[in-house]
């Protein structure tokens, strides 16, 4: 395994912004001089979805991200493999991740959906995070309902003895009372630091997301206190 513990960017559900936050963290650390590399254990919905490619584009190099396994159905990996008639073994996923972690001075593992998403066999995403001995960064939504989803995710991680770096409230605009009060309430409920990332305007004329602009926006939004908690030496 790598001399440094991997960072695992996990979400409270699908579509909360794990890939954009992963891209932002990877770009930030690489700009600070660290050889950070994002690892997507398995990509479903491919094509067109390709989170590793998004991170690589955000960082301007293919060396910034990798994914060892792609599946076409846009479903949980275990279910996607079953529907596609392909074999998918947990030990193969774990071994591939460990190999990439060993090769990356600063490895960042991006989760798949939420923590309880079926990965392979009877194992879930949270099992992989625990087996890789990663430190978790939790990405969550900003609006109504996020208190429950985030607190339950924290409980699940703690039950698996997974260290938590902090919580990223994504697309935080502060337009509602729920949004404005959620960050402080999450800190009170979980006792972990919370940082916010605003909605980012990183779209190209054709409507596609522009990875470098989005990643830079995340990097700039992360608080210094949050950055200091990242398990990266010599910062």
Features:
41% helix; globular; 7-stranded parallel β-sheet; two-stranded antiparallel ribbon; Rossmann fold; 235 residues
Mean pLDDT: 94
* Overall spatial form: globular
Total count of helical runs of at least 4 residues = 9
Strand order of the largest sheet: 3-2-4-1-7-8-9
- What's the CATH first level? Alpha Beta
- CATH superfamily, called what? P-loop containing nucleotide triphosphate hydrolases
Query: How much of the sequence is in beta strands?
Result: 15-25%
How many angstroms separate the termini?
21 Å
State the CATH topology. Rossmann fold
Helix content: 40-55%
Pathway: Cofactor biosynthesis; biotin biosynthesis; biotin from 7,8-diaminononanoate: step 1/2
Pfam families: AAA_26
InterPro entries: DTB_synth_BioD, P-loop_NTPase
Active site: 40
